[in-house]
């Protein structure tokens, strides 16, 4: 498999270099989803083969795997949408968003407020989705209860010029309450988009098998210690933190 590894607009050579592309503050907490996420993808060739099997598609021969994949706002002014990992091949774009201990993100309604610029930004994302995968106009009022992050992540996977698109919530140690929360979000968006044929959604839970070293770091955080990036980065680079159970796909209707 030919893999082009990137972080943003920068090519990187390997997993260790990839970690160094992130600001150190990203790893101050061992509970950040970035930690198990990057550990999972450290053996990227192996995991890409598993991903193809999970999605029921032919094995990848040539792919670009871009971490922190940015898509600029399409209207108005604002920060780019940055997807945790965008995998692109000749005919597929697969956006992967990591979830671990994060609280719920603000809804479109809360984020939008009374800002005319934010309304324009939102309209730009919705236009990108409509023109790419569903061909019907999406009304703002239909998505106000959804997290704003989900909307612009969906728009981001519609940005590459490919035939098929997939958005995956890659969750770690997902409990029943959060599984219901994420599933409800994705199902609501699917209904709004009228079940698009060439855009698919997956909710995947991956059990964590924690090493004593990782458990100890989480205990230190729980006791009040902060700014732990040095120890977190060291453990990630040596791959001593985590192993992973079999990914489990949670049904979305």
Keyword list:
9 helices, alpha/beta, 253 residues, globular, 38% helix, eight-stranded mixed sheet, two-stranded antiparallel ribbon
What's this entry about, in short?
The chain has helices at residues 15-21, 34-40, 44-55, 108-112, 116-134, 148-157, 176-192, 212-222, 229-237, and strands spanning 2-7, 10-11, 62-71, 81-88, 92-99, 164-172, 199-206, 208-210, 242-244, 248-250. It is α/β, with parallel strands linked by helices. The mean pLDDT is 96.
Q: What would you note in describing this structure?
A:
The chain is built from nine helices and ten strands. By secondary structure, it is an alpha/beta fold. The model has no long low-confidence stretch (mean pLDDT 96). The strands form two sheets. Strands 2-1-3-4-5-6-7-10 form an eight-stranded mixed beta sheet, with helices on both faces. A two-stranded antiparallel sheet has the order 8-9. The protein has one domain. It is 38% helix and 24% strand. It has helices at residues 15-21, 34-40, 44-55, 108-112, 116-134, 148-157, 176-192, 212-222, 229-237; strands spanning 2-7, 10-11, 62-71, 81-88, 92-99, 164-172, 199-206, 208-210, 242-244, 248-250. Strand 1 (2-7) and strand 2 form a beta hairpin. Helix 5 packs across helix 6.
């Amino acid at each position: 498999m030919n893999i082009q590894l990137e972080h943003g607009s920068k090519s990187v050579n390997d997993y260790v270099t990839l970690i160094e592309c992130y600001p150190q503050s990203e790893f101050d907490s061992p509970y950040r989803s970035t930690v198990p996420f990057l550990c999972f993808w450290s053996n990227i060739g192996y995991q890409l083969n598993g991903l193809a099997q999970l999605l029921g598609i032919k094995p990848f021969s040539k792919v670009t795997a871009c971490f922190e994949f940015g898509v600029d706002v399409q209207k108005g002014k604002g920060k780019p949408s940055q997807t945790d990992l965008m995998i692109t091949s000749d005919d597929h774009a697969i956006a992967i968003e990591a979830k671990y201990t994060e609280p719920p993100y603000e809804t479109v309604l809360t984020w939008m407020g009374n800002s005319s610029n934010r309304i324009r930004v939102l309209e730009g994302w919705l236009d990108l989705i409509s023109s790419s995968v569903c061909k019907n106009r999406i009304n703002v009022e239909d998505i106000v209860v959804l997290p704003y992050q989900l909307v612009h992540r969906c728009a981001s996977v519609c940005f590459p010029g490919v035939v098929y698109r997939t958005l995956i919530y890659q969750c770690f140690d997902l409990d029943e309450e959060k599984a219901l929360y994420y599933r409800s979000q994705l199902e609501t968006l699917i209904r709004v988009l009228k079940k698009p044929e060439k855009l698919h959604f997956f909710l995947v839970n991956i059990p964590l098998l924690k090493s004593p070293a990782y458990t100890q770091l989480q205990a230190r955080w729980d006791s009040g210690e902060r700014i732990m990036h040095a120890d977190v980065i060291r453990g990630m680079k040596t791959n001593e933190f985590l192993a992973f159970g079999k990914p489990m796909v949670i049904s979305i209707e």
